[in-house]
Amino acid sequence: FQPATSACARCASAEARVRIASLASRESTVQWQLDARRSERDRVQLASEAQRLEKLSMEDPLTELANRRSFEDHARAQLAAGGVVSLALIDVDHFKQVNDQHSHLVGDQVLSQIARLMRQHVREHDVAARLAGDEFVLLLRGATEEVAQQACRRLDEAVRRHDWNAVSDGLRVSISIGAAQRQEGDTLETLMARSDAAMYAAKRERQGAGVRLTDESEGEGDAPD
Question: What's the whole-model pTM score?
Fold first, then answer.
């Protein structure tokens, strides 16, 4: 009987080794699957974080419009490509008084509401951006000064008609807009300078509200007082 017992023991030992090997293989497979899933989660998280950081680098966090960097990238590319394009600079009138009289929280709400109105009153392929503080800009692709004027007047009207009392009792908000169409040889700086001059002409003309184009204000500096 001893040889038979020895043979049975060897069989049992072999079966145990096979079972152990099978379990080890299964455990290895499960571990590989877990590692693969963990790696995929890490990849998705890294991609999501990269997208979030990219968005933060190109978007104004308060208004969710393009920020200055993003706007300048779009504008320089558009000017380099040539073609018709207009630029409109927008300034919130007496914004310091809004902050002083109604609080900075209300001031932030004003900026956010103006940004929302900008998104509603521009075309999908235009670029709306916040430059800094209460200064905004529109890059109007394929827009002549006439088209730019129409877009700016719609925005001006929307801001004036907006229910600002819902934001804060007695709150009144207006904007001044200056627009200019790209001319041959324009850089972003020269185009913005002409838009800026038109915007301040609008402020002078209506004591802080209105829309002006560059051709409307040309020669004003030489006009008699």
Answer: 0.71
> Looking at residue 150, which CATH number applies to its domain?
3.30.70.270
Q: Which residues are catalytic?
A: 134
Same domain for 97 and 160 = yes
User: Domain range spanning residue 39?
Assistant: 1-58
Residue 224 placed within a domain: no
Residue 79: CA atoms inside 13 Å, Cβ hemisphere, count? 21
pLDDT at 204: 82
CA 159 to chain centre: 20
pLDDT digits (tens, 9 = 90+) for 161-213: 999 999 999 999 999 999 999 999 899 999 999 999 999 888 887 654 456 66
pLDDT digits (tens, 9 = 90+) for 76-91: 999 999 899 999 999 9
How many structural domains does the chain have? 2
